[in-house]
Design brief:
GO terms for molecular function: ribosome binding. The chain is α+β, with helices and mostly antiparallel strands. About 30% of the residues lie in helices and about 30% in strands. It has a single domain, classed as Roll (Nuclear Transport Factor 2, Chain: A).
């Protein structure tokens, strides 16, 4: 991350604490985002989309229903991220905005890198290299792929709104396209 982007996100976190939620903590948010990512990715992999109603926006859920039904099994398996297999997490873009009706929103894009043992080819469609990590001896090696995902979390901060974060974007590059 560039120093400018790092400063900008820290400034937005300060604004969130000052104007929206005095108890907001990026560390706590990140822990919750990792848990949500793990749960949602596993449910996507298992095609249990009906269990995502409270976690994912209706628009995203509709798109997911169409895409998941077309995925080959190995790509679907690669969507699942065990929380212990998440190697790195970073926040991307942070946005604060108001709509025309005065409703206040905050959205935070989170990027996840995770290991997955799905049976993927060395190259996935789209000419993107999938990193592979071998564990164990040559005769019993276990192949893992280092995959990425981007999930955007949004929360409404208008007075009287539910204090829940909703996933408004899900991207698993080269797997869920």
């Amino acid at each position: 991350t560039s120093p400018f982007a790092w400063l900008r996100t820290r400034f937005y976190y300060l604004l969130i604490r000052l104007y929206f939620d005095q108890e907001f903590s990026i560390e706590e948010f990140t822990r919750g985002a990792k848990q949500a990512f793990s749960v949602v990715s596993k449910l996507l992999s298992q095609r249990k989309l009906d269990l995502l109603d409270e976690l994912v926006s209706a628009e995203v859920l509709q798109v997911l229903k169409e895409k998941i039904s077309l995925l080959p099994d190995n790509h679907r398996d690669a969507l699942a991220a065990d929380i212990d297999a998440i190697m790195y997490t970073t926040e991307g873009d942070v946005r604060i905005y108001y709509d025309d009706d005065g409703i206040k929103f905050v959205s935070i894009l989170m990027r996840f890198w995770y290991l997955n043992g799905a049976n993927l080819p060395d190259e996935v469609p789209g000419e993107t290299k999938v990193f592979q990590i071998m564990f164990g001896e040559e005769s019993t090696k276990e192949k893992r792929h280092l995959l990425t995902a981007n999930y955007e979390f949004q929360r409404e901060f208008t007075e009287g709104a539910k204090p829940d974060w909703t996933i408004t974007r899900i991207e698993h590059p080269r797997l869920l396209e």
